[in-house]
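Why show two proteins at once? Because comparison is the fastest way to build intuition. When a single record is shown, students tend to memorize it. When two are placed side by side, the eye starts asking what differs. So, the first record is below.
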Amino acid sequence: MSIFLFILILAVLIFVHEGGHFLIGKKSGIGVEEFNIGFGPVLFSRTHNKTKYSIRLLPFGGNCVFEGFDGEESDSPTSFINSPVWARLSTVAAGPFMNFVLAFFLSLFVIGSIGYDPPVVSGVMEGFPAEEAGLREGDEIVRLNGRKVVIYRDISMYILFHEGENINVRYKRDGLFYETVLIPRYSSEAGRYLLGIFGGERQKGNAFSTVRYSMTEVRYWIEMTVRSIAGVFKRGVKMDDLAGPVGVAGVVGDVYEESKPEGIFVVWLNMLQLTILLSADLGVMNLLPFPALDGGRLVFLIIEAITGKGVNKKVEAGFHFFGMCCLLFLMMCVMYNDISRIFGR
């Protein structure tokens, strides 16, 4: 079952991402030669209105092949290269954008079902900074070093990326605001730095708050992904920091097994929450300015939109080909690392 859920989640993420490219490209008058889900041998295909739709054997990716997308010169008005720069830019950006849209709509269901996590203290830990500063149950954390706190997980994320730093905590109690300075303390039991507060209890709201906190949910995972990527490069990329499809499949399996005793509804909610995370992560990763990724293509299109003249297409094609080779090599290394973690080195 866990393998089926992993393939289903992956298929949905890829379909939505490539579907974003497809829909905006079609709307912009760009010819689509092929829309496929997966890689490798074709399992099913059908051609309709000059577009080949196919499902392939390996469910680890997909592709939306536009006419002239490889940079070759063409006289066709529907060729990607001959389309207006803003049409090309919006078509490329549509993939990551649709991943964020998917994350938002899934968040509506999750937040509507179990509510959001307001930044309210439900308890304090003995011997930690929060207790020493006098924080108590019912206090609402509103700002950390001037940064607005919207959900309880904002507190955990801030501490994660500011370990051991002085944190000016602004909190609300009985309608009045107070401030104190706390220094997160390392907990050997938890294996991380803590302020020493409990919280995160879910609270349901109305339709307006459901929409608001669904947007906050997407913002949270986008920010977590961006900060995590920055942190990885700051301290140096290690293979143990990376995970590919095999690693993600393992996470899906773990979440499924842990949720199964709680019933099908809990399994469903946890799978949705995992999909929200992965969708936001996929959107961010594709926006990185790396060759062959959507972000790398957007860099060239933005240059063309600003200067009115694009980079030499052969140079750009070579740049993206190099990037694709690097990505394929990285995928092989990550897959080896995932398999090694499963079976032990």
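Second record. Ask yourself what differs from the first in the token line.
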Amino acid sequence: MTLTTTTTDEDQARQLDEHDPMSTLRDQFHIPPASGGPFVEAAYMAGSSLGLQPRSAARALAAELETWAQFGVAGHEHPARPWMSYHELLRAPTARLTGALPAEVALMNSLTVNLHLLMVSFYRPTTERHAILIEDSAFNSDSYAVRSQAAFHGYDPDRAVIRLRPRPGEDTLRSEDVIDYLNREGHRVALVLLGGVNYYTGELLDIPAITLAAQAQGAVVGWDLAHAAGNVPLRLHDWNVDFAAWCSYKYLNGGPGGIAGAFVHERHLDDTSLPKFNGWWGTDPKTRFEMRPGFDHTASADSWQLSNTSIMAAAPVLASLRIFDDIGMEALRGRSVRLTNYLEALLDELCRDPRLTIITPREPAQRGAQISVRIKGLEAEKVRDALRYEHGVYTDDRKPDVIRFAPVPLYNTFHDCWRAAAGLADVISKHSQ
């Protein structure tokens, strides 16, 4: 294989950056230095694993550290930004980001903790209806969560958890196949829990259509939005989703292990019959400090919150959400499609090698800000390291042979896409000699 890129190709990438209708917000983020190659900054295409740090995050954290230093415990009631109600600052921007009502969202815990708390309420198995439907390529933590929930209720996870696979010879699970299965077997499905955007392939499932089909068969529908929140536009309230959960450290740039989010549809918020694990931050704030032994229900997603918010974890998320508010998901999605289409075209042109296959859907409406490439015969980890240390291109690998490129519209550029494709072509060329 030969590297076909030319100086003109690179010039074209720079021209696309100059003329894009939505300029990058790259200068609002810390870009790691390049570990190799001729460029100073990395082409950071690993936002599907960990988003970059907004420059405003340090200021947000510093402000809370200063409040702690100056006020101690009185920081909970500090007039500028009291810690007691800090979580409320995140409510409105999170609702706008996910297409929810403010009362339907809460920022709390971590992703899998939130999934478990929500399944306590929404996985209500019976002898006739106890199956949990997930995709076969679900992230491991989702598999562990649903299997343990099935076992907790006394069912054999190998039987209760149904793993839908793509058609033979295909890499992605078609939304129509999910719907077809629900139309045939939905009568025994208690819970559908799918990833909105698949972590491995970058496929965007048809969330509203699958939700409608599942609920028509009497199933409850939850979504893992770890790779969808901050990546694609969401309309959780209008789509009538029962519940959802997501993390904040990928496309939302909230920092490693950042505080996670949860959504519960409005129609469930006042249902006191739902089983729920309670904690003191979920009780009615009007009576919270009366220290009653009984739980005072409040009709919001906050009632699923167990503990007071980690301020130091929430501050970077708040800083990032303000960036999303400034630009809006529709504009970001438009730029995401342009970047991903360009990267796909470059990979097709530059990497003409039968060992390389793009496993992400070709239709832009069926994918997020991700292109996953299978490289037959090469270890993904070695390709990842060569890209990083020889070309300054950060990617993410999935064993045994998949490399994930995530052109994040907030900080990636067309030139980053060119560097990624040219770097991959060079790495593969060296291994073909």
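One difference worth noting in the second protein: The longest strand covers residues 189-195.
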